[in-house]
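Before going further, it is useful to explain how the protein records used in this thesis are read. An example of such a record is reproduced below.

***
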Amino acid sequence: MNDENDDENLDPRRRRRKRTQDWGLSNEEKDLIRPLYARGKGAQTLVQQMLAQGIITWQHPLSTRDYQNKITHFLRSLRIARHRDDLHVINQLIVDHAYTPDLVIEDDNRPFLIPTLPKAFVALDLDDTIVHATQRMDVYDRFNGEKVQFTTASSGKTINLLVRPHARDFLGQIAALYNVIIFTVGDAEYAAKIQAHLDPAGTLFSGCLSRTNCTLVDNELGKDAKTLYTKDLRKVSADVCRVLLVDNTKDCFVHQPLNGILVKTWLKNQADRELLRLASFLEEHAGVEDMRLLPEMWVV
């Protein structure tokens, strides 16, 4: 009996498995998708899951035949890699957006694309992270870097503000890659003054959260706590896996401990290069879908 007749007499489930094995994929590609089929999830289910998660989109509904017959093109479009920080690991397949810009279904030219994800959020603390406020005029006068003085109406006090070295370059670099917001324990007027100084054109920051947006924890963090206020990233986005908090106070991470990048406290060191190091790190990992992966890779 020839192979065609063998195929005709196969149990439908066996025939489906045979088609799966004959997709023309490399052994490495087969190894990557085999666990999905071991759990009984066929091509149609795989695509439906990716649709539901927003991993792939297309402009028109697809028939079952489209799912099954054209999944090969989708799988072949995936760049297989064991580890790339700027790719998104989905069901053991690594999706490279740049590699699949215009994948189409050949029957009727209906496109389905790997979407470019919206920019993630980087929430920045201000005090001792980006700037340092001091009441000492001798410290202010001796500082040779960027500095500014302003008075707040609420307190009537003059604020002597030192700007951390390389802050301008840092903000310009990450604002092109992320939605950057201020998240400070300082009051709203204080935050607005600093925002206006650092971003007079209004092109760097996407928003500003201040003390009224923080969570008062009082003594809940214990007697050694460095702050009475913490920062709940659900104030930034309901999807906290797309938000990173950069702060010099670890206690601020209590609500989402996996989302925090701890930076060195800065007071006045003019040779400090922490923001340059952070800018390079955030640029290198700008394509990561889950921002909670970054703190594990950051070296304090």
Notes: The first strand starts at residue 57 and ends at 58. The two ends are 68 Å apart (CA to CA). The chain has ten helices and 15 strands.
